[in-house]
Known about the structure:
Shape: globular
Order of helices and strands: HHEEEEEEEEEHHEEHE
Largest sheet: 12 strands, antiparallel, barrel
CATH superfamily: monomeric porin ompg
Low-confidence stretches: 1-32, 44-49
Strand content: over 45%
Strand order of the largest sheet: 1-2-3-4-5-6-7-8-9-10-11-12
Helix content: 10-25%
Amino acid sequence: MNTTKIIKLHTLKLFLASTVFSCASFSSATLASDIGQNLRNNTEQGSDSENYLELGVMVRVRDTQTFKSSNGKGSYTSTGLFINGSYSWNNVFIENYSESGHGLVVGYNAFTNDDWSFDLMATTGLLKVSFEHDSLYSPDKDELMVGGRLSGYVGNNIVQFSINQDATGDHNGTTASALIGRNWQLRNWNFHGIIGAEYVSAKLNDYYVGVSEESSAHLDTLDAYKAGDSVSFSTELGVTYPISEDWVFRATGSAITIPDAITDSPRRRSKKSVATSFRTSLSFVF
């Protein structure tokens, strides 16, 4: 990534971060559009969820692939802090959910009725917590994607479709995903399940795991490789329990398939076809 692109990307990230603090002076209710957050909060159909801020600690046990250039292990346990929260004002919203697999989201709710909601949004790596998807792509590279997200209530299920395009000009890659989930309430225990599929374009895959002819000749340890597009599948099961009015416990197990376009790359250290994780967290809601 050249200096101009780095400055451009950091400027965009600073703009998004400044938007967070500038909006903090307003108050409004927001529809929690992230499917995982809706299910964990047991959001009622068509209802609004309060703006909130949540701080917590998370323990993660992961089994995943690693890059040859990385010193990390495929299976490990880690502990870290996270920030969850959402805020909206005049249909402009900001959200960050540690369980979502991406970082800070800034967007605009373009359409909402009793059953459907459509958002325009920008997604960054800012405040991102390590996630299963990190096993597919290098965690060392910045990201800024723009796109749209359609969420709907179908019976007892929530469905969500999204498409995102690279906004940095680094790879001009595209992702598209489809998710469906539902929750089950058992006294104060809120259980949920999500299954989904994600398409990733060849441009994005090749940017992260491809090896050009020039790089292969220079490194001399990696064969040239051009990655194609891919489809991966994911599943998640979790439970949320409010210990008190302010304290919340969560536990989540998830798995995502790793497509051949990724595992065939000479940059990969192993040929694992599935990445898994189990996460538990305790958080305080302000």
